[in-house]
């Protein structure tokens, strides 16, 4: 049953995204279903409602003049002027599952926050505003939005307070899926940035386990006009189908590559320091490579260093293109190298890598 909330306050933008990330850590706030489809009028005076919300959320969010609480109201008449609250209007009837109730530990009260689907759409709105102001190119905006979608549909969450500098949380449950995201956006109407949101949602994949895996999926899978080299759509942490003979040979029941491109029988394995350190982990990594080799699958290991700079990633891509060429012919190698070496595509890819690694242009 949906949780019965207490405070008539609707939170969105970066504030809702931070609460979503906090909840995924398995701590407070706890999220519950909500039947709300529109921002409604408060039962109490709004001036009282937002003051209560700021007080209740003090232990969860950094609220101040530099980072105000994002609050939505149903019309302009309800907007307030205060340094610690950024009041925005949302008068549209939204699709089902647009809001969640975030139950707070301190008192058991709750606030309404944007659901993962609405949060995705709100990021698209902000990025669209920057596009209209010519602050960034559309492929960069698309990549930033796809990256956020893959976080929501993946098993990791960025640091709520420092998304691009702090540590991620891993091995989490996804809070939505690409199918749910696309279905919600298909029903949404009269939202700014909807065109960008729908375009990005088509490229969001499920199953990513880290920001690095998401970046590889985009930069390898996107077409060249979006900064990629068009290797294809990878399967992310998806279990390979093994025959009984394969399982006996490999002495294991399954394999889950980080990224797998079935057409080229190509695996990209990202070796993050947290999960791949120590002798036992190193032995396991070697055994996995042996298993892939036994199945005729080429493995390309990668680390965070490959994504640290645009030059480092260009070097990685060239080696990858030559490796594919060895397995599948020089024509295919040259096709991928043409995307790698094209100055326009390379500059675009550099901007995307910079945005993804530093958080430049990030909304949250």
Topology:
Layout: E1 10-11, H1 13-24, E2 30-33, H2 46-56, E3 69-73, E4 85-89, E5 99-103, E6 110-114, H3 116-132, H4 138-152, E7 156-157, E8 169-170, H5 178-187, H6 194-201, H7 211-221, E9 235-236, H8 244-250, E10 259-261, E11 266-270, H9 279-294, E12 298-302, H10 310-328, H11 330-341, H12 343-358
Parallel strand pairs: 1-6, 3-4, 11-12
Antiparallel strand pairs: 1-3, 2-5, 5-6, 7-8, 9-10, 10-11
Helix pairs in contact: 1-3, 3-4, 3-5, 4-6, 4-7, 4-12, 5-6, 10-11
Tell me what you see in this structure.
The protein is of the alpha/beta class. Helices cover 42% and strands 12% of the residues. The strands form three sheets. It has a six-stranded mixed β-sheet. The protein is globular. It is built from twelve helices and twelve strands. α1 runs antiparallel to α3 and α5 packs antiparallel against α6. The longest helix has 19 residues.
Please count the beta strands (DSSP E, at least 2 residues each).
12
Compute the average pLDDT.
91
Biggest sheet architecture: 6 strands, mixed
Number of helices: 12
User: End-to-end distance, in Å?
Assistant: 30 Å
Estimated share of beta-strand residues:
5-15%
Shape verdict? globular
Radius of gyration: 22 Å
Report the order of strands and helices.
EHEHEEEEHHEEHHHEHEEHEHHH
Q: Helicity range of the residues?
A: 40-55%
Which spans have pLDDT < 50 for at least 5 consecutive residues?
1-5
Strand order of the largest sheet: 2-5-6-1-3-4
Structural class: alpha/beta
